[in-house]
Write a structure and sequence with these properties.
Elements: H1 2-12, H2 21-42, H3 51-54, H4 58-89, H5 107-113
InterPro entries: DctQ, TRAP_DctQ
Family: Belongs to the TRAP transporter small permease family.
Subunit structure: The complex comprises the extracytoplasmic solute receptor protein and the two transmembrane proteins.
Length: about 110
Amino acid sequence: MVVQGWQVFTRYVLNDSPSWTEPVTLLLLSTALSLGAAAGVHTNRHFGFYLLGEHVPPLMRKIFEVIRPLMIMSIGAVLAWWSAVLLIDGLDIKMAGAQMPQSINYLPLSIGGA
């Protein structure tokens, strides 16, 4: 909020908006969302589709309970791996408006996926 507040102040009061505020805001937003989603998965408060699991026989429900954490770990590992690959591949490309690599936006996804 501080970065966006600064952008609004400089744009409308000083009539000279800095170019770095938008990329930094997007990075901070994706960081908050990725870490929030990771915390939700860790505490088992993430969204889920329980309709199928509630209407199957008890044996199938037990199988779903075993498979579910494995699937969550697999998806997290794939997200962490491929976002890290994209992060490393784009480190030499500079972001417009900020002195950061273009691929820095993949960093929260790779941390949150892990």
